[in-house]
Amino acid sequence: MPVPLVSAIICTHNRDTYLGAAIDSLLMQDFPDFEVVVVDNASNDRTQEVVAERRSHPILKYVYEPVLGLSVARNTGASVAAGEILAYLDDDAIAGPNWLSVLYCAYQSNEKLAVAGGKVTLLWPAAVTAPNWLSPGLAGNLGAYDLGDDVIYINNPGMTPRGLNYSIRRSFLAQIGGFDLNLGRVGKKLLSNEELHMTELALQQGWQVAYLPDALVAHNVAPDRINRSWFLQRGWWQGISECYRERLAGSAGVRQLGRGGERFVRGLYKSLKYFNDPAQRFDNIVYTYGQIGYLSAAIQGLLFAPKETEQP
Questions:
Q1: 6-221 under CATH 3.90.550.10, yes or no
Q2: For the residues of 124-178, what is the DSSP string, one character each?
Q3: For the chain, what is the mean pLDDT?
Q4: Secondary structure class of 198 (helix, strand, coil)
Q5: Confidence tier at 189 by pLDDT (50, 70, 90)
Q6: What angle is formed at CA 294 by the lines to CA 230 and CA 300, rounded to 5 degrees?
Q7: pLDDT, tens digit, 9 for 90 and up, residues 215-265
Q8: 40 - beta bridge partners?
Q9: Are the CB atoms for 238 and 192 separated by under 8 Å?
Q10: Between 20 and 30 A from 228 (CA), which of 206, 242, 279, 284?
Q11: DSSP structural state of residue 184
């Protein structure tokens, strides 16, 4: 069987409600030579049935990964996939019909391109609109990503493409040893920063990272995320993720206490400064809460061998 040019990979965990639409958006791509790999990451819902309903498509593969964790599942997907370009779509997202075409053309025209992703819009549940306390920055936690209508080569890792609309060159992924298992979501533990870490590694090693506005994906906003408590939890784990990423980069230690303390004070000050602006106020509250998670992980790293920090 010929090797496909691109492997589109969905890593899924208990998202049978959205999964079918995600798979269908890939099966309807206008790109002529690709495969679809669904990595079932320890799901206990109807995930297998949803995939089975579409198994008549010869390009569709299914693999079960029992070890829970997004980075684990992504590495499993890469090991099963055959394409040189690996395109990752979240299980609750819908890819535009030319998503793979845009991604593939970018890699074909630039041999130094290691990572690329595109614009992400949000799909709100029926009869739901964005709350007045949701800032543009916090909307990014729901997956929103828009750097404009022009192709941009990323030099600031903080602007790296979103993981729900993400592609990577296989040779680069092999060069760095796969997705780092210390980063990335594990069940309800919202660890992140794995894409940011990838961008740092790519830039350090002379590769390029690109934002492709025409590689469009829409992301469903789950109803349980439209509340302040979810954003606070997300901020907490973002702080922990940042601490872990600094360990990987070799910049951990006592100096993290100073960094985290300074950011905590700055966030608290801005929360008060923008008290009359619901969106800016809550944005800074989430940021401040995240610094508590960061400091907790930093202190634990100083006192003990690195391990997960639980939310209080």
A1: yes
A2: PPTT----TT--HHHHGGGT-B---SS-EE--SGGGPPPTTEEEEEHHHHHHTTS
A3: 91
A4: helix
A5: low
A6: 120
A7: 999 999 999 898 999 999 999 988 988 888 888 778 888 889 999 999 999
A8: 12, 64
A9: yes
A10: 242
A11: S
